């Protein structure tokens, strides 16, 4: 499988990866949708079998509360009109009870609830039979001016009604618990099923993505490694790819490039060894490397030929001979022109002078020039020796003053009579500066010595650089002993 995947084009690999990812997403979506549909159906079942019947029975319970209250008021009525009004309220309540009970009967399917509904229906019929007998008797008693008695049968059927409604509500509650437990199990199953599908799909996707990534990244890494080796000049590095995709083509192209570089370097080595017969054949009309290398060979050959001619002319005494700089370009022209310029001047004394001036500029004082020259070159030599002596004297005086300052001999001054011109002005300026500085130093020391309490100065290393007399007296040591 690995070799077949390596031979597939990168574009097809990526498209295949997207298709597989989309297919897995569809599978996960279908699985999750099916599980969610079952959970949703279970929720609808809970609503239809429990929630709605419970609401309807709540209405029935409330209506029977109204009925009982109306019946109690009938027993306290004083005329037939009052009884009739209460009877109308009971009729309204009974109609609501019939409607709500019909809703409950139409929605429930649980056998226990159906049995409880049947018991409630029997109790309701008994209550209605009793009512049909009770209300006329109440009207008759009230019309005769009497007080209706409390009906024991009415209490019994009312109690039966209450018990049947409680049983029905309990059956609904028990069914709600059953459905809730079943729904909870269903939810757990749905979550586990979806999780399993996600894990399996994700694992498959990760494995495929890992293999696809390796199929692309590993050959890229091999090519990058070869490029790194080539950047270090290790031209023997090769990819050696056998893949049939674009990365395999790139690896083989890089190997051909490295081989071409090795051939080019081999030719350059020949040129470096002086073998100007080394030439490279162009691959095609667009080849830029071969013409450039062959042009280098031609330019170096022409330069060598020109230098050999000049050397022969010089050996044979033809000192007026010069190289033809117009034949060359760039640095090669500069080489020929430089040789010509060299031949135009006697450069040995000037090189000595330039070397001495460079050393003096860098602060190096060379020894006097002992070699003899003729004419103006000897004057240049004498002037350079005078300059070396003057700068040397200036440096020597500077060192003397620095050493004296470090030793505390602030009265030491340079001998201005040893110098001339601006050098004398420099030495005089240094002496005058020292006069001012030393005077200020003594003045500040006198001020600090007049302070009655110890005063000291330290450097960044916490070493004493100055202590006043109060400090000397306090420590019992001299200033020179404490300094440093």
Short description:
The chain has 484 residues and is mainly alpha-helical. The chain has 13 helices and two strands.
Descriptive keywords:
two-stranded antiparallel ribbon; 1% strand; elongated
Describe the protein in words.
- The chain has about 475 residues and is an all-alpha fold.
- It has 13 helices and two strands.
- It has helices at about 1-5, 10-75, 80-105, 110-145, 150-230, 245-270, 290-315, 330-345, 350-360, 375-405, 420-450, 470-475, 480; strands spanning about 455-460, 465.
- A hairpin with a 5-residue loop joins strand 1 and strand 2 (about 465).
- The protein is elongated, with a radius of gyration of 60 Å.
- The two termini are about 80 Å apart.
- The model has no long low-confidence stretch (mean pLDDT about 75).
Structural topology:
Blueprint: H1 2-6, H2 10-74, H3 80-107, H4 111-143, H5 152-231, H6 246-272, H7 289-315, H8 330-344, H9 348-361, H10 376-406, H11 421-449, E1 456-458, E2 464-467, H12 469-475, H13 479-482
Antiparallel strand pairs: 1-2
Helix pairs in contact: 2-3, 2-5, 3-4, 4-5, 5-6, 9-10
